[in-house]
Amino acid sequence: MKSAKFNTLSIVLFFVLTCFFTKTYAQQTIINVPSSDVLPAENMIIKTSVKTQLGDDKYTRITPTAIMGLGHGMDLSVGVPTKINEDFNTQASADVGLKKVWFAGPSTRITAGGSVAPSFNDSVTPSMFAYAHVSQKIRKSRTSLTFGGYMHGRNHFLNKGGVVVGVDQVIIPNKLRLALDWMSGETDKGNFAVGLKYRPVPTLSITSAVIIPNRNSDNIAFQISVSKYFSFDFDSNDKNTSKKERL
Among 31, 154, 174, 227, fewest CB within 10 Å belongs to which? Predict the structure, then answer.
């Protein structure tokens, strides 16, 4: 009975949050690994991710996130991951991330960033995450390859790390892509994820994925994300205002 109620709640929360957040577009990712994509200034993404883990330790994590382009190859992400277990107990935290991308050529990017996630429930050290990787696009095959490393600390300063690998393969241009990423190590971040990214319209993206943890003690999970992109043209507004003032 608890399992049925839990699954029903997960579905209801997913559709409520999806309908709310698709009105407007989170740090962009391959699946779980931050990607080399970066938002220009005056651009924004709002993203809602729902991850459900199966097995004995069932839970659903809902993460609404906003990403804002800062310009100069940088963007800022702010999220509120909320974990709900099968007894309806919740754990919430903030997740603030910053990313910087350097363009080393038309097909090569170097990315570095990190995030801090303080808990709203407990007085503990914030969880921390830092990473750096290189991404290479192969234009003929429409493939993007990513390789690098990361450091992670759960309620602790950075104390564990591993390797980051990612592949993003175009299947139908501007419509459908296959994506996978892997983070090594016996940490909360250590897992293999594979999924499909579907873009019904240019400003809307839907990603569904299976997540397989590295640790045998953890269970397989399913994740779905919905992202909406939009931009602000402040220069245009300023120009229109100036024209009205002159009139």
Answer: 174
pLDDT given for residue 230 in this prediction: 87
Which value, to the nearest 10 degrees, does the dihedral of the CA atoms of residues 35, 40, 41, 43 take? Answer: -80
Tell me the pLDDT tens digit for each residue of 29-70: 999 999 999 999 999 999 999 999 988 789 999 999 999 999
Instruction: Over range 228-244, report the average pLDDT.
Output: 61
Look up residue 196 and give its two tokens.
């499909």
CA angle 218, 112, 102 (to 5 degrees): 145
Over residues 174-212, the pLDDT tens digits come to 999 999 999 999 888 999 999 999 999 999 999 999 999
- Over the stretch 81-114, which tens digit does the pLDDT of each residue have? 999 998 889 999 999 999 999 999 999 999 999 9
DSSP structure string for the chain: -HHHHHHHHHHHHHHHHHHHHTT-----BSSSSB-S--PPTTEEEEEEEEEEE-SSS-EEEEEEEEEEEEETTEEEEEE--EEEETT--EEEB-EEEEEEEEE-SSSEEEEEEEEEE-BSSS--PPEEEEEEEEEEEETTTTEEEEEEEEEEETTSSS-EEEEEEEEEEEEETTTEEEEEEEE-SSSTT-EEEEEEEEEEETTEEEEEEEEEESSTTS--EEEEEEEEEEE--HHHHHHHHHHHHH-
C-beta separation of 168 from 177 below 8 A:
yes
